[in-house]
């Protein structure tokens, strides 16, 4: 979905692992709780464990949101839809998350994360998205990217201290007009 009501935030981080190693971690759809702040566990709920159609629940305590892979680019990344059942994740009309890998050098990978969303309520929703949601989304993306850097480089789950220490390595990607 790429209409006037869709808004997005993107960040990028350089990870000191080859792109093949980064892809090995990224395509394992069960690992999100190792780098996303506040996630306590990830549960694959589809028979497909990775690739197009893979579906997971990501938990914060006993509550969860659903994520389903809706686009798959082997070795490069994928897009997930964030939802609750058949409906988009509240309060959104659309919520999608892109993971994109690109080789920076033989031993480095650039990871770009993009969250696209559309709010209900027309112009008011767009204003609320721009003024309230985008700043929160940028902060969340920064934390996820810093956590990915730590987890991908060490193999250990990222802590809040790790994310804070590595936050300065994450760059905001300018919005596409």
Automatic annotation (TrEMBL):
InterPro entries named in the record: Polyketide_cyclase/dehydratase, START-like_dom_sf
Gene3D superfamilies (UniProt xref): 3.30.530.20
Pfam family, one: Polyketide_cyc2
Protein name: SRPBCC family protein
Organism encoding this protein: Candidatus Seongchinamella marina
Lineage: Bacteria, Pseudomonadati, Pseudomonadota, Gammaproteobacteria, Cellvibrionales
């Amino acid at each position: 979905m790429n209409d006037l009501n869709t808004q997005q935030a993107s960040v990028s981080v350089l990870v000191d692992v080859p792109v093949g190693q980064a892809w090995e971690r990224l395509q394992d759809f069960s690992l999100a709780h190792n780098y996303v702040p506040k996630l306590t566990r990830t549960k694959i709920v589809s028979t497909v464990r990775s690739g197009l159609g893979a579906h997971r629940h990501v938990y914060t305590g006993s509550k969860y949101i659903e994520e389903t892979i809706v686009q798959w680019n082997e070795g490069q990344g994928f897009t997930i839809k964030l939802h609750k059942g058949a409906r988009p994740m509240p309060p959104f009309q659309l919520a999608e998350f892109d993971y994109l890998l690109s080789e920076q050098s033989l031993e480095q990978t650039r990871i770009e994360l993009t969250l696209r969303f559309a709010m209900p309520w027309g112009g008011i929703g767009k204003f609320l998205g721009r003024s309230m949601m985008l700043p929160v989304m940028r902060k969340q993306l920064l934390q996820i990217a810093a956590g990915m850097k730590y987890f991908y480089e060490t193999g250990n789950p990222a802590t809040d201290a790790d994310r804070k220490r590595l936050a300065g390595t994450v760059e905001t990607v300018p919005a596409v007009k």
